[in-house]
Structures are given as C-alpha cells and as structure tokens.
Amino acid sequence: MMIELFAAFALSSAFSAADDIEITKLSEDFYNLELARFEKKLPVRERHERTAERIAKKADCKLPTDIGWVHARVDVALEVSPTGRVTRVVPVDTGCRQLETYVIEHLTKYAGRDGAVVRNGDKKWYRQAITFRWPE
C-alpha cells in the first residue's frame, strides 16, 4: 500500500545526498528509515491527548476505533541535523491534516533543539510515530 505524504514544503525537494532518497519516494522507503531515538522521552501527556481529541473532533476526522476508544497514530519522517536537532517533520497522510499539523508543532517544540535526537554525523532522515487515544 502506497503511503501518501503532505508537507509544508514542496514535494520536489530531496533528502540529503548521503541518504539518496527523494521525498517523492518516501512512500516506498518510509519503513526502511531508522527509528529515531530521543534523548528524553517525548512528552505525550493527557493534555496533549485532550488537545489532539479536540482538534480531530473539530475537523471531523475519521480515525480508527476499537472497543470504545479512538486510536490516532501519526507516523512521521524526521530530518535531523548533525547535532541532533529535528529540522523538518513530514507526516504520513492519516486523513486528518489538522492532527498531522498538531504533531508537526509538537515535535518541533519538543525535539527542535540540539541533542533532542541521539545522533552524531551528517544530516539524516529518521522515522517515528506519535499515538493518541481517547474515548469515543
């Protein structure tokens, strides 16, 4: 199944030469990206879940449910600088653009500083996911 992406930047831009992956091909290569390891656990607290719930309900997003719970998972590709700073976040299309935008803002806030991702070396792309859940 092809995974479609949206991003705040043009889809014609490319990943770093070392990774040799074009963003338009991310749908094929996403799950081959290394999983990002954060220096500290990324906060996804109750207030973040409440915010995600409000955003998704206001946008009338159709998200998966199971036994009375809504499960919202947003997979993202993260461009990480040589110092470990998240410099770009590209979400996988969930059908809820507003929730994806919230995840971009969340990751930028909590991982947009040097050392946020365990990393040394060249700029590189990683993958990660944030999940939220709330009662139906």
Q: Any overview of this molecule?
A:
With 136 residues, the chain is of the alpha+beta class. It is built from three helices and four strands; from the N terminus they run ααβββαβ. Strands 1, 2, 3 and 4 form a four-stranded antiparallel beta sheet that branches. It starts with 25 loop residues before the first helix and ends with a strand. Residues 1-25 have low confidence and may be disordered.
Explain briefly what this protein structure is:
The protein is α+β, with helices and mostly antiparallel strands and about 140 residues long. The chain has helices spanning about 25-30, 45-60, 95-110; strands at about 65, 70-80, 85-90, 125-135.
The biggest beta sheet is recorded as:
4 strands, antiparallel
Principal-axis shape equals elongated
Count of beta strands: 4
| SS content category | alpha+beta
Number of helices: 3
Strand content: 15-25%
Order of helices and strands: HHEEEHE
Q: Between the first and last Cα atoms, what is the distance in angstroms?
A: 28 Å
CA radius of gyration: 15 Å
Average pLDDT: 79
Low-confidence stretches: 1-25
Roughly what percent helix?
A: 10-25%
List keywords for this structure.
3 helices; disordered N terminus; 136 residues; four-stranded antiparallel sheet; elongated; alpha+beta; 24% helix
